[in-house]
Each structure stands twice: as C-alpha cells, then as structure tokens.
Amino acid sequence: MLKSNYMSKETIDMFLKVFGSLKQKVIWKFEADLPNKPANLKLVKWLPQMDVLGHKNTKMFITHAGQSSVQETLCYGVPTVKTARRNHKRFLILFVGKNPTWPLQVACMRIKVLTTCITSICTHIRMVFRARSR
User: Fold this and answer.
1) Fewer Cβ atoms within 10 Å of its own Cβ: the N or the C terminal residue of the chain?
2) Which architecture does CATH list for 4-132?
3) Distance separating alpha carbons of residues 112 and 93, to the nearest angstrom
C-alpha cells in the first residue's frame, strides 16, 4: 500500500486540486495532516476498505492496483482508477475485465486527465450500476 509519506508534494497537490474541484465528498486514506485540504475532503489514517467498497454511496475507488485492492474492487463491482507505480503491476490492470477501470501511470498523471476519469465515472450512474450488477 502506498503510504502518504512516499508521495511527492507535486502528486499530493495534484490530488488536492482534483478532489477540491469535485462536487462529491471524498474520503482519502492519508497518514498525515494537510492544512490546506478542500472542504469536501475527509482525511483518515485507516479505513476498513471492504466496508467502503460495499457502501451504497461509493461511486468509485482510486487504488494503487495491489492484489487485494484489485480483488476487492472486482468483488464489489466498484469502478476504479488504478494508479500503477511500476510496470510489474501492468498485468493486474489488464486483468480487470469485469469492472470498468482507467489505468494511469503516476508519472504521467495530470490534473485534467485524473479529473476527467473521476467525473466520467461519477456522472455515469449506469456505469456504476453495471459494475455492481456483475
């Protein structure tokens, strides 16, 4: 699992800008305090991931594409944005055929691309319904 202290300041700032631009509430597992976090963002140091994925109001999930996260998102049918950090995770991203997924390399991720992925998922309720009905 990617800990917040391994994220660059640029990556953290990018996520803060993207999350702040959304109309939805966002929960982010993040181990440190962020003084300038947007009002719609709740930071938590730990979450029961399966409870979050199984919650009726969960619209999407951003994950580092670890084995457990991939299996759990498939189990609950939650659309995901997978932020693989290394090429060896590529097979996990390509494996996910049953649930809508947007693979992004962290090094190539930009504010506009991430915002587009998130808003596409959150505004297309049919996509969420289809993913959960499998």
Assistant:
1) C
2) 3-Layer(aba) Sandwich (3.40)
3) 21
Can you give the residue ranges of every domain in the chain?
Answer: 4-132
d(CA 68, CA 65): 8
Give the lowest-confidence range in 8-12, 75-79, 125-129.
125-129
| pLDDT tens-digit readout, 67-117 | 788 788 888 888 888 776 555 444 444 444 455 566 666 666 788 888 888
Half-sphere exposure of 70 (CA within 13 A, CB side): 20
State whether the Cα torsion 7-8-14-17 is positive or negative.
positive
Would you state the structure tokens that stand for residue 87, as one six-digit string? 């090429």
Distance from C-alpha of 96 to C-alpha of 112, rounded to nearest angstrom: 24
Q: What is the pLDDT of residue 102?
A: 63
Q: How many Cβ atoms sit within 10 Å of the Cβ of residue 103?
A: 17
pTM of structure: 0.77
- Between vectors from CA 115 to CA 113 and to CA 118, what angle results, nearest 5°? 110
Cβ neighbourhood burial of 115 (10 Å; 0-12, 13-18, 19+): middle
